[in-house]
Amino acid sequence: MNNYKKLKGLIAATFTPVDTNGDINYSVIRKYAQHIKDSGISGVFVCGTTGEFTSLTTAERKLILEEWIKSGEGDFQIIAHVGSNNQREAMELARHAAVKGADGIGCIAPSFFKPEKVKDLIDFFTPIASSAPQLPFYYYNMPSMTGVNLSVAQFLHEGRKTIPNLAGVKFTHNNLMEMGDCIQLDNGAFEVLHGFDETLICGLALGAVAGVGSTYNYIPGVYLNIMKAMRDGDIEKARAYQIQSVETVKVIIKYGGGVRGGKAIMNLIGMECGECRSPLASFSKEEYVALRSDLEQIGCLKK
Fold first, then answer.
1. How far is the C-alpha of 92 from the C-alpha of 87, rounded, in Å?
2. Domain CATH code at residue 136
Protein backbone atom coordinates (compact mmCIF):
# COMPACT_ATOMS: atom_id res chain seq x y z
CA MET A 1 0.00 0.00 0.00
CA ASN A 2 1.40 3.37 -1.03
CA ASN A 3 2.09 5.92 1.73
CA TYR A 4 -0.23 4.04 4.10
CA LYS A 5 -0.98 5.94 7.30
CA LYS A 6 -3.33 4.56 9.93
CA LEU A 7 -6.40 6.64 10.63
CA LYS A 8 -6.55 8.52 13.92
CA GLY A 9 -9.00 10.96 15.44
CA LEU A 10 -12.34 11.92 13.94
CA ILE A 11 -13.34 10.94 10.40
CA ALA A 12 -16.49 12.79 9.32
CA ALA A 13 -19.01 10.82 7.29
CA THR A 14 -19.91 13.54 4.81
CA PHE A 15 -23.33 14.62 3.57
CA THR A 16 -23.95 15.05 -0.15
CA PRO A 17 -25.01 18.62 -1.00
CA VAL A 18 -27.88 18.99 -3.44
CA ASP A 19 -29.57 22.05 -4.92
CA THR A 20 -33.28 22.88 -5.05
CA ASN A 21 -33.70 20.64 -8.10
CA GLY A 22 -32.13 17.68 -6.32
CA ASP A 23 -28.97 17.83 -8.43
CA ILE A 24 -25.56 17.53 -6.77
CA ASN A 25 -24.32 20.95 -5.66
CA TYR A 26 -20.62 20.38 -6.19
CA SER A 27 -19.80 24.03 -5.50
CA VAL A 28 -20.61 23.61 -1.79
CA ILE A 29 -17.91 20.97 -1.30
CA ARG A 30 -15.05 23.51 -1.27
CA LYS A 31 -16.75 25.44 1.56
CA TYR A 32 -17.52 22.13 3.28
CA ALA A 33 -13.87 21.07 3.01
CA GLN A 34 -12.76 24.32 4.62
CA HIS A 35 -15.25 23.66 7.43
CA ILE A 36 -13.62 20.26 7.96
CA LYS A 37 -10.14 21.82 8.02
CA ASP A 38 -11.24 24.42 10.57
CA SER A 39 -12.91 21.80 12.81
CA GLY A 40 -9.87 19.72 13.72
CA ILE A 41 -11.22 16.72 11.83
CA SER A 42 -8.62 14.16 10.65
CA GLY A 43 -10.44 12.91 7.57
CA VAL A 44 -13.65 12.32 5.68
CA PHE A 45 -15.57 9.22 4.61
CA VAL A 46 -17.19 10.18 1.31
CA CYS A 47 -20.41 8.77 -0.19
CA GLY A 48 -21.25 6.41 2.64
CA THR A 49 -24.61 6.02 4.34
CA THR A 50 -24.60 9.66 5.46
CA GLY A 51 -23.78 10.62 1.87
CA GLU A 52 -26.85 8.72 0.57
CA PHE A 53 -24.70 6.53 -1.69
CA THR A 54 -27.58 4.28 -2.71
CA SER A 55 -29.41 7.35 -4.07
CA LEU A 56 -26.46 8.43 -6.24
CA THR A 57 -25.38 7.39 -9.71
CA THR A 58 -21.91 6.02 -10.31
CA ALA A 59 -20.99 9.15 -12.25
CA GLU A 60 -22.15 11.36 -9.38
CA ARG A 61 -20.13 9.38 -6.83
CA LYS A 62 -17.01 9.79 -8.94
CA LEU A 63 -17.45 13.55 -9.33
CA ILE A 64 -18.22 14.03 -5.62
CA LEU A 65 -15.02 12.22 -4.67
CA GLU A 66 -12.99 14.20 -7.17
CA GLU A 67 -14.29 17.46 -5.73
CA TRP A 68 -13.43 16.37 -2.19
CA ILE A 69 -9.90 15.39 -3.23
CA LYS A 70 -9.41 18.69 -5.03
CA SER A 71 -10.91 20.76 -2.20
CA GLY A 72 -9.16 18.87 0.59
CA GLU A 73 -5.76 19.80 -0.84
CA GLY A 74 -4.07 17.11 1.25
CA ASP A 75 -5.05 18.69 4.56
CA PHE A 76 -6.99 15.63 5.74
CA GLN A 77 -7.33 12.00 4.72
CA ILE A 78 -10.06 11.03 2.27
CA ILE A 79 -11.62 7.59 2.34
CA ALA A 80 -13.85 6.80 -0.62
CA HIS A 81 -16.79 4.55 0.05
CA VAL A 82 -17.13 2.35 -3.02
CA GLY A 83 -19.71 -0.13 -1.74
CA SER A 84 -22.54 -1.34 -3.95
CA ASN A 85 -24.81 -4.33 -4.39
CA ASN A 86 -23.18 -4.50 -7.83
CA GLN A 87 -19.65 -5.89 -7.51
CA ARG A 88 -18.59 -4.55 -10.91
CA GLU A 89 -19.72 -1.04 -9.98
CA ALA A 90 -17.74 -1.23 -6.72
CA MET A 91 -14.65 -2.35 -8.65
CA GLU A 92 -15.04 0.60 -11.03
CA LEU A 93 -15.36 3.02 -8.12
CA ALA A 94 -12.31 1.50 -6.41
CA ARG A 95 -10.18 1.92 -9.53
CA HIS A 96 -11.38 5.50 -9.86
CA ALA A 97 -10.55 6.27 -6.21
CA ALA A 98 -7.02 4.99 -6.68
CA VAL A 99 -6.43 6.95 -9.90
CA LYS A 100 -7.78 10.20 -8.44
CA GLY A 101 -5.72 10.04 -5.25
CA ALA A 102 -7.95 8.90 -2.42
CA ASP A 103 -6.18 7.74 0.74
CA GLY A 104 -8.24 4.59 1.16
CA ILE A 105 -11.44 2.80 0.20
CA GLY A 106 -14.28 1.39 2.26
CA CYS A 107 -16.94 -1.07 1.17
CA ILE A 108 -20.21 -2.04 2.81
CA ALA A 109 -21.57 -5.58 2.51
CA PRO A 110 -24.12 -6.18 -0.25
CA SER A 111 -27.61 -5.96 1.21
CA PHE A 112 -30.04 -7.30 -1.41
CA PHE A 113 -28.50 -10.66 -2.27
CA LYS A 114 -26.62 -11.24 0.97
CA PRO A 115 -23.51 -13.34 1.66
CA GLU A 116 -24.44 -16.31 3.82
CA LYS A 117 -20.93 -17.15 5.01
CA VAL A 118 -17.76 -15.23 5.78
CA LYS A 119 -16.16 -16.84 2.73
CA ASP A 120 -18.92 -15.39 0.55
CA LEU A 121 -18.19 -11.92 1.89
CA ILE A 122 -14.45 -12.37 1.30
CA ASP A 123 -15.12 -13.57 -2.24
CA PHE A 124 -17.29 -10.50 -2.90
CA PHE A 125 -14.72 -8.05 -1.55
CA THR A 126 -11.51 -9.59 -2.96
CA PRO A 127 -11.82 -8.31 -6.55
CA ILE A 128 -13.00 -4.91 -5.27
CA ALA A 129 -9.98 -4.49 -3.01
CA SER A 130 -7.64 -5.79 -5.72
CA SER A 131 -8.97 -3.08 -8.06
CA ALA A 132 -7.08 -0.59 -5.88
CA PRO A 133 -4.22 -2.65 -4.42
CA GLN A 134 -2.20 0.44 -3.50
CA LEU A 135 -4.93 1.70 -1.13
CA PRO A 136 -5.92 0.41 2.32
CA PHE A 137 -9.25 -1.41 2.21
CA TYR A 138 -11.79 -1.12 5.05
CA TYR A 139 -14.80 -3.39 5.51
CA TYR A 140 -17.80 -1.20 6.38
CA ASN A 141 -19.71 -3.37 8.86
CA MET A 142 -23.25 -2.09 9.53
CA PRO A 143 -25.64 -4.97 10.19
CA SER A 144 -28.53 -2.64 11.11
CA MET A 145 -28.64 -1.45 7.49
CA THR A 146 -27.37 -4.44 5.52
CA GLY A 147 -28.80 -7.35 7.50
CA VAL A 148 -25.38 -9.01 7.17
CA ASN A 149 -24.24 -10.08 10.64
CA LEU A 150 -21.24 -12.31 10.04
CA SER A 151 -18.20 -12.62 12.30
CA VAL A 152 -16.04 -9.58 11.69
CA ALA A 153 -13.04 -11.09 13.46
CA GLN A 154 -13.24 -14.17 11.25
CA PHE A 155 -13.57 -11.96 8.18
CA LEU A 156 -10.45 -9.96 9.11
CA HIS A 157 -8.36 -13.01 10.01
CA GLU A 158 -9.33 -15.03 6.94
CA GLY A 159 -9.74 -12.07 4.60
CA ARG A 160 -6.12 -10.97 4.69
CA LYS A 161 -5.16 -14.23 2.96
CA THR A 162 -6.76 -13.02 -0.28
CA ILE A 163 -7.00 -9.27 0.44
CA PRO A 164 -3.42 -8.14 1.21
CA ASN A 165 -4.49 -4.49 1.47
CA LEU A 166 -7.14 -5.26 4.10
CA ALA A 167 -6.47 -2.57 6.72
CA GLY A 168 -9.42 -2.95 9.03
CA VAL A 169 -13.09 -2.32 9.62
CA LYS A 170 -15.50 0.55 10.08
CA PHE A 171 -17.36 -1.04 12.98
CA THR A 172 -20.88 0.42 13.02
CA HIS A 173 -22.47 -2.02 15.41
CA ASN A 174 -23.32 -2.12 19.10
CA ASN A 175 -21.65 -5.49 19.77
CA LEU A 176 -18.76 -4.10 21.82
CA MET A 177 -17.53 -7.57 22.76
CA GLU A 178 -16.97 -8.31 19.08
CA MET A 179 -15.39 -4.89 18.57
CA GLY A 180 -12.91 -5.54 21.37
CA ASP A 181 -12.11 -8.91 19.86
CA CYS A 182 -11.33 -7.24 16.52
CA ILE A 183 -9.07 -4.66 18.18
CA GLN A 184 -7.02 -7.38 19.87
CA LEU A 185 -7.08 -9.75 16.88
CA ASP A 186 -3.69 -10.97 15.63
CA ASN A 187 -1.81 -8.71 18.07
CA GLY A 188 -3.64 -5.57 16.99
CA ALA A 189 -3.03 -6.07 13.28
CA PHE A 190 -6.17 -4.25 12.13
CA GLU A 191 -7.59 -0.76 12.41
CA VAL A 192 -11.00 -0.74 14.05
CA LEU A 193 -12.86 2.50 13.38
CA HIS A 194 -15.63 3.17 15.88
CA GLY A 195 -18.88 3.79 14.01
CA PHE A 196 -21.53 4.82 16.55
CA ASP A 197 -21.02 8.45 17.62
CA GLU A 198 -23.20 8.10 20.71
CA THR A 199 -20.91 5.41 22.18
CA LEU A 200 -17.49 6.71 21.12
CA ILE A 201 -16.28 6.62 24.73
CA CYS A 202 -16.84 2.84 24.75
CA GLY A 203 -14.76 2.26 21.63
CA LEU A 204 -11.94 4.41 22.98
CA ALA A 205 -12.00 2.48 26.25
CA LEU A 206 -11.54 -0.73 24.26
CA GLY A 207 -8.56 0.69 22.39
CA ALA A 208 -9.95 2.30 19.24
CA VAL A 209 -8.04 5.42 18.17
CA ALA A 210 -10.34 6.64 15.38
CA GLY A 211 -14.04 7.02 14.78
CA VAL A 212 -16.20 7.61 11.72
CA GLY A 213 -19.42 9.51 12.31
CA SER A 214 -22.01 11.89 10.90
CA THR A 215 -22.41 14.15 13.94
CA TYR A 216 -18.68 14.95 13.80
CA ASN A 217 -19.69 17.29 10.97
CA TYR A 218 -21.55 19.73 13.22
CA ILE A 219 -20.46 19.13 16.84
CA PRO A 220 -16.82 18.08 16.39
CA GLY A 221 -15.75 19.85 19.58
CA VAL A 222 -17.80 17.45 21.70
CA TYR A 223 -15.95 14.44 20.28
CA LEU A 224 -12.51 16.07 20.29
CA ASN A 225 -13.10 16.74 23.98
CA ILE A 226 -14.11 13.12 24.55
CA MET A 227 -10.90 11.93 22.92
CA LYS A 228 -8.75 14.39 24.88
CA ALA A 229 -10.42 13.51 28.17
CA MET A 230 -9.88 9.81 27.53
CA ARG A 231 -6.22 10.41 26.70
CA ASP A 232 -5.90 12.38 29.94
CA GLY A 233 -7.63 9.64 31.94
CA ASP A 234 -10.48 11.98 32.92
CA ILE A 235 -13.40 9.59 32.62
CA GLU A 236 -15.89 11.93 34.29
CA LYS A 237 -15.22 14.68 31.77
CA ALA A 238 -15.36 12.22 28.86
CA ARG A 239 -18.68 10.89 30.14
CA ALA A 240 -20.13 14.40 30.41
CA TYR A 241 -19.25 15.16 26.81
CA GLN A 242 -20.61 11.80 25.67
CA ILE A 243 -23.93 12.67 27.30
CA GLN A 244 -23.98 15.86 25.20
CA SER A 245 -23.54 13.65 22.14
CA VAL A 246 -26.39 11.39 23.24
CA GLU A 247 -28.72 14.37 23.69
CA THR A 248 -27.95 15.53 20.16
CA VAL A 249 -28.47 12.05 18.72
CA LYS A 250 -31.85 11.83 20.49
CA VAL A 251 -32.87 15.02 18.69
CA ILE A 252 -31.81 13.81 15.24
CA ILE A 253 -33.64 10.52 15.79
CA LYS A 254 -36.77 12.57 16.48
CA TYR A 255 -36.38 14.15 13.04
CA GLY A 256 -35.73 11.04 11.00
CA GLY A 257 -32.24 9.94 11.97
CA GLY A 258 -28.65 10.82 11.23
CA VAL A 259 -29.05 11.32 7.49
CA ARG A 260 -32.32 13.29 7.32
CA GLY A 261 -32.01 15.05 10.69
CA GLY A 262 -28.28 15.54 10.36
CA LYS A 263 -28.53 17.08 6.91
CA ALA A 264 -31.08 19.55 8.25
CA ILE A 265 -28.64 20.54 10.99
CA MET A 266 -25.97 21.18 8.37
CA ASN A 267 -28.36 23.61 6.72
CA LEU A 268 -29.01 25.31 10.06
CA ILE A 269 -25.29 25.89 10.67
CA GLY A 270 -24.92 27.49 7.24
CA MET A 271 -23.55 24.56 5.26
CA GLU A 272 -26.02 24.43 2.37
CA CYS A 273 -26.47 20.70 1.89
CA GLY A 274 -30.10 20.90 0.75
CA GLU A 275 -32.63 18.15 1.20
CA CYS A 276 -32.29 14.38 1.06
CA ARG A 277 -33.17 12.54 -2.08
CA SER A 278 -36.34 10.47 -2.20
CA PRO A 279 -37.47 8.25 -0.53
CA LEU A 280 -36.30 10.35 2.45
CA ALA A 281 -38.82 13.16 2.93
CA SER A 282 -37.85 16.81 2.63
CA PHE A 283 -37.88 18.99 5.73
CA SER A 284 -40.81 21.37 6.16
CA LYS A 285 -40.39 24.94 7.40
CA GLU A 286 -42.20 23.96 10.59
CA GLU A 287 -39.76 21.11 11.17
CA TYR A 288 -36.78 23.44 10.76
CA VAL A 289 -38.24 25.81 13.37
CA ALA A 290 -38.87 22.93 15.78
CA LEU A 291 -35.45 21.40 15.16
CA ARG A 292 -33.70 24.69 15.85
CA SER A 293 -35.65 25.08 19.08
CA ASP A 294 -34.79 21.56 20.24
CA LEU A 295 -31.11 22.07 19.48
CA GLU A 296 -31.04 25.42 21.28
CA GLN A 297 -32.59 23.82 24.36
CA ILE A 298 -29.72 21.35 24.67
CA GLY A 299 -27.08 23.96 23.83
CA CYS A 300 -26.16 22.46 20.46
CA LEU A 301 -27.07 25.69 18.67
CA LYS A 302 -26.77 29.23 20.03
CA LYS A 303 -30.05 31.11 20.46
1. 9
2. 3.20.20.70
